[in-house]
Each structure stands twice: as C-alpha cells, then as structure tokens.
Specification:
single chain, 443 residues, alpha+beta, 3-stranded antiparallel sheet
C-alpha cells in the first residue's frame, strides 16, 4: 500500500476537525456490480471511502463520531467466513479492521441496523452524501426514523442533514507528497504505454491492437486497470471526443488519437497523444498539430499558484483561434471570434479538469461564483484540441476529418507547474524520429 496507515488516520482526523460539533459522518463503500448473470465486474472501491480508510472490500460502512469517548472511528464490514473466503478471497473482518486499518471499533455489517441508530442518536447533525446511493439513502432515513419513533422515550434524533461532499472533496483536491509520488509513477507507466503504441502502430493494424499494447504495458508495471475506457481513434474517429469502440482498421495517412491512462493504487493518469499512422505528418496535420501544441505550452505558462483555474483554458482558446485564423479555417478579428465563440466547432471542450483518485476528480472549479485560485498540490490536466468534422463544408476539404488532442497531467507549484507525464514525446520531430526508429528495427 503506497499510502500509509498513518496518512489515512490523518485524513480522518482532518475531516472530523471540519465537522460541526455534535456530528456524525456516514460513508458507505462501493458494492459489487453484476456484469452478466452470475459474473461480476472487478470490484473498485468508492473513492471517498477508500480515501478515508484504505479498506478495499465491498459491503462496508464508515462512521466518524468526533469526540466519542469510546472511539471516534467505527467501521462495519463483512465478518470472517472461511467457507465464503474459499470462493471469493480473504476478508479482514472486524478484527482486521481494527488491527490493520486503524478503526477504533468494528462490527459485522449484519449488525449495522442494531448498532448504528444508537451511534446516530444524540448527535445533532448527520454528514452524508445524500442522493448518490439511492438504496443506502433509504437505509439512513430508516435509522433516523427509528430514533424519531422513540422521541417520547427520550431519544434525540438529529435535527440536520449536511452534505459531506464539499468538505471531503476539498480535502481530496490537495495532494500530499505520497499521493504525488503515486501519480508521478502512474504518469511514467502511462507514458511508456503511449510510446509502446506509437512504436507498434502501422497502417493496417486495428485500433484495438494499439489498445492491447497499452493495457499490456499498464499491467506489466503493476497497474492492472485503466483509469477510464481507453480511446484509440484513427482518422475521422479522432473527431469523436469519447470514441471507445476502438474497432476500426488504421489506414495509411490517418492520424491516430490515443487518450489512455492507468490507475495505480487508486490514482489516475490521463494522457492524450496524436500521431501519424505511417510515421509522417502531412502538411495539414502538422500545421494543426503545431497550433494545438503551442496552445498547450501557453497554458503551462499561466498555471501557477495565485492564478485562477480558467486562465489556462483562456490561453488555449486564444492560441487556437489565432492559429485557425492564420491557416484560413476562421476569418475575422481574433478578439471578436473569441467573444462570439467562433472556435467552438473546432474546439468544443474545456482545456482540462482536476485529476486524482477519479480521472475527472472532485473539487470545486468556482468559489463564490468566481474561478478558483490555484494552490500548490492541486493536480489538473491540460488537454487542448482541434477537431475538423469530416462534414464541415465551411473549410477546404484537405482539413476535414483531422482530429488532434494533446494532454498532460500537471501539479501546481508555487513557481509554476510540474508536468507529471512529460516522458512521452509530443514534438513533431520527436514523434517522427521515434516511429522511424521503430520501423527500422522491424526491418
């Protein structure tokens, strides 16, 4: 485990210090999901639950009770069951939850209806992410209603429900040194996977074969799962932002857009590279690619503590609009084109998002209605793109069907930003040299 038991304990302590007095926080784990009939998807723990516990089993509930003399951290989990463990793997059990995961008290999940209402009773406020788990929402309300039914006997039900997400997600937005080490490693693994795909690519191979090369590199490095469904789009498929079919044969002259990143120890990487299938950019491909790359570099220049979240996006819009004008795909005054969002048929998404345990990670982008100021320890993606739809009759035919995106992961520092995914080539000459070397090796 790359995050220590002490760091998980520190996270719980920090969260409890943010709660109003007389509160309880309730956080459920993820559940097993059926893929088909009696086959289940690989289990992936809920990010909030794992962030606070490091506990990677389904059917568990964490209760945090600041100031409780008998122990502030209570975990409900599956009991040990040697017969079931023979089929589905070992369980920590309540004893393991205390010994290995730092719970002050732990109970079998089957006893939660008997025990948790007693922990809620007397607490004035319940912190909980209402609306995210419909079935568990009903369970929480059932426990509260049990207490309400006993008011005449002196029971004290909570009078207020408060959203836990804002406090917890703001904590997750700032990465510790340990988290950054994991994310840097995830970036290095993902970078090698992109290089591997570039070297393997030839006209005639299929998109799914490039995806297989990427997943192989992830798994061989200990990252058994991608952080999200990998996008491998050749030719016009690169103009589909969330293309995941990955089923087409790659043709000579195609650009190949790959958006893929591994998940390592619950932390995501997110990289996009675009490269020519035959190893050489056409003049039109190169011209548009250089505009996207210049826009990303301009964004990097304004990512630093004290600048606001949207400045990076604004820089990409400026450079892309100027570039499209210079190439003749847009016509008019750059300032007016930006004000009228004339670039949006070519660049329809934002320049990035928060990154962490979730690939589109939690955290507010605005505070009090204004763009959030960047602070050290925040991690974000920078992913400008240009997509010329194959049916865009407003541009010359030679530009149509070209889709380009370049994406890297950066951590905000006091002086600027540190690129976590810099190992994979993105300069035109470097990409062409890498692919030429791979082709020579085949010969």
């Amino acid at each position: 485990m790359s995050i220590t038991k002490q760091e998980f304990a520190r996270r719980r302590k920090n969260l409890m210090e943010l709660l109003e007095p007389g509160s309880i926080a309730i956080i459920p784990s993820a559940r097993m999901l059926t893929r088909s009939r009696d086959s289940e998807y690989p289990f992936r723990q809920d990010s909030d639950f794992y962030y606070l516990t490091g506990f990677d089993e389904p059917d568990a509930v964490l209760a945090l009770l600041p100031g409780r003399e008998a122990g502030e951290v209570v975990l409900f989990c599956r009991d040990r069951d040697p017969a079931m463990e023979l089929w589905t793997g070992y369980r920590a059990g309540p004893e393991g939850a205390v010994a290995r995961y730092g719970a002050d008290d732990a109970f079998p999940i089957t006893d939660i209806d008997d025990i948790l209402p007693g922990l809620i009773e007397g607490r004035q406020r319940v912190y909980y992410a209402m609306g995210r788990h419909a079935e568990f929402d009903q369970q929480v309300m059932t426990w509260v209603n049990v207490i309400r039914s006993k008011v005449r006997s002196g029971a004290e039900p909570p009078g207020e429900f408060l959203d836990l997400d804002h406090l917890l997600h703001d904590m997750r937005l700032f990465k510790s040194a340990a988290e950054l080490r994991v994310m840097r490693r995830a970036g290095e693994i993902s970078a090698r996977a992109h290089e591997r795909a570039m070297k393997f690519c030839r006209p005639g191979v299929y998109e799914y074969q490039l995806e297989a090369e990427i997943l192989h590199e992830f798994a061989m490095a200990g990252a058994r799962f991608p952080a999200y469904s990998s996008i491998v789009g050749a030719g016009v498929n690169g103009c589909i932002l969330h293309y995941v079919e990955n089923s087409s044969q790659i043709r000579d002259g195609d650009l190949v857009l790959i958006d893929a990143g591994c998940e390592l120890d619950f932390y995501a990487a997110d990289i996009t590279r675009t490269f020519p299938a035959n190893g050489r950019f056409s003049p039109e491909q190169r011209a548009l690619y250089e505009v996207v790359l210049a826009s990303q570099k301009a964004a990097f220049e304004v990512i630093r503590a004290g600048n606001h979240w949207n400045q990076a996006h604004e820089e990409t819009v400026r450079v892309i609009t100027e570039g499209l004008c210079e190439l003749g795909l847009l016509k008019g005054d750059v300032s007016e084109l930006i004000a009228n969002e004339a670039y949006r048929p070519f660049y329809m998404h934002r320049a990035g998002h928060w990154l962490g345990m979730d690939v589109h990670d939690v955290g507010d982008y605005k505070v009090g209605g204004t763009w959030r100021l960047l602070e050290p320890g925040m991690v974000m993606t920078v992913e400008p793109g240009i997509y010329v739809a194959p049916d865009n009759l407003d541009v010359e035919e030679r530009w149509r069907g070209i889709g380009i995106r370049i994406e890297d992961d950066v951590v905000v520092t006091r002086e600027g930003c540190d690129i976590l995914t810099a190992d994979v080539p993105k300069e035109v000459d470097d990409i062409e040299a890498l692919m030429a070397e791979a082709q020579r090796g085949d010969g």
